Amino acid sequence: MENNIKELKKKLNDEIKKEDELERKTSRVTLDVNIFDNDIFLSKLSDSSQPCLSEEVKQFITDQTRKYRPKTSFNIVIHHKDMSKEQQNLFVQATKYSFFCEYKENKYEMNRNLISAITLTLIGVVALLVRVLISVFVEDAVFLEFIDIFAWVFVWAGVDLLFIERGIKSLRQKRYLNIINSKFEFVEMEKSSK
User: Fold this and answer.
1) Angle between helices 55-65 and 166-180 (to 10 degrees)
2) I want to staple 121 with a disulfide (CB 3.0 to 4.6 A). Which of 49, 138, 147, 158 is the partner?
3) Tens of pLDDT, residues 99-110
4) CA 13 to chain centre
């Protein structure tokens, strides 16, 4: 049984390597999206005159792009049944607008996190300075340790927001930009006989 697991692991790793090599060789990766119901791709609600993708389709595209590097460019091939040219244009507009909104929201969140990170770090540093000043006058080790822990919690929260969260959001932003800049191709599915 252990041999089977090792073989499966080796096979999966080989497949991943092949996909990585293909991704490096080609400038764009093709994502296939099958739309069986043309009414599913647009949301019934929008905050502007622009069409928006439904959450289901947006999540599907996001999930499909997650397995590639954030800098990867995409060709999105839509397999559909009887989608008119107008619906095709609407789909492209909705995709670009929906991911532009995601990009914009992500950017605002990065800015808010930057301000929060700086504030948290400053609170932590000030608390550490207060601890040093108080240690001259107070000999209570428990009280000083309490201030120490308080300060380091704020410093760590600031570092987390500034470096870890910001990095994750930056990668997400690159992915959104690549989806916005995707090339779209529409292919009609063959009608199956009933």
Assistant:
1) 110
2) 158
3) 999 999 999 999
4) 24
Cβ contact 176:105 at 8 Å: no
Confidence band for 2, pLDDT divided at 50, 70 and 90: low
- Measured CA angle at 164 (ends 160, 167), to 5 deg: 145
Helices 85-137/166-180 angle, 10° precision = 170
95 Cβ contact list (under 8 Å, min separation 6): 53, 61, 76, 179, 180, 182, 184
**What Rg, from alpha-carbon coordinates, does the chain have?**
25
- Whether residue 32 contacts residue 60, with contact meaning beta carbons closer than 8 Å, is answered with no
Angstrom distance (rounded) from CA 15 to CA 51: 38
pTM of the model: 0.75
Higher pLDDT, 120 or 6: 120
The conformation of residue 39, written as its DSSP 8-state character, comes to G
